[in-house]
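On clarity, I found the account of how folds are encoded harder to follow than it need be. What matters is that the chain and its backbone geometry are given together, residue for residue. For the editor and my fellow referees, an illustration may be useful. For illustration, here is how one protein appears when written out as sequence plus structure tokens:

___
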Amino acid sequence: MTMPLEIVTVACLKDNYAFIAHDPDTGETAVIDVPEAAPIQAELDRQGWTVDEILITHHHDDHIAGVEALREAHPAARVTGAAADAHRLPPLDREVAEGDTVTIGAEAGEVLDVSGHSVGHIAFHFPASEVAFTGDSLMALGCGRIFEGTPEMMWDSLRKLAALPPETTICSGHEYTAANAAFAVTIEPDNAALTARKAQIDSARTKGQPTVPTQLATELATNPFLRAGLDEVKSAIGMAGAADAAVFAEIRKRKDNF
């Protein structure tokens, strides 16, 4: 029986996360996003793993700054990123787009275009291991600020991710969850699941514990950006009957100004 990927979360910089995915059947290892190389290399050394693949979600420096140093330490590693982002990524060994497949050992993953935070942002979904690496698209109780795309583009990307199996583990790029929770309760103050989650998050952060990764089912129940199409959310913000993307845009605007 094939074993699922082993996922290790690595804290980087001030509030970034990188992820190491290891296939126990083949021994192959991938790193998803490289904010800085040193903490990732320290974890690789601790595990006794060598990097075979580096997968990049998008071009922002806090996700790619350590790629060259990590590649220098692992010269056989193949670097994969979006073709649409290739002109502003480190040199790529493979350019991919939505519908393409990437592999970590024996497991295949699908590339999803989740543009919005940036144009050319991609996510990697590994269905057998029930995990998705979403970078700064879908985040724990939030979504990335829209720097390059449009609200409609980001809403389409979030709907794409929301359609994944609810048991999917969402590995996102930042420890923003406490701030996201503080905002989320202003949108849905009567959401009991959200209230309970906020208490858990506040407790975890007080203890210095991470709140990433999370599970898609939890996001569907509590994340206001995923819930913008629901009648109760529309009513809660005074937009009953409005188009889903317009409601999302209003929630994103409120978060930007929160």
